[in-house]
Specification:
With about 70 residues, this protein is mainly alpha-helical. Helices cover about 65% and strands about 0% of the residues.
Length: about 70
Amino acid sequence: MSSYREVAELILKLKGELFLSPRERWFLKRLEESAYPWQLVEEGIKRFYAKLPPERRKKTPAFLCPW
């Protein structure tokens, strides 16, 4: 099962960024606190960023992902 850190690294890799915004970190922390299944989170994030054009990925925060 994935952890908070693995999901954060996945987001960074997909976005091509060096760090998460404070709001994105807060969002992942809230998911962790509510015991959200990390496999669903990972799959939703992968699908969300796969549908975005590459030039918009850096500007689109992960918390806008509509699992």
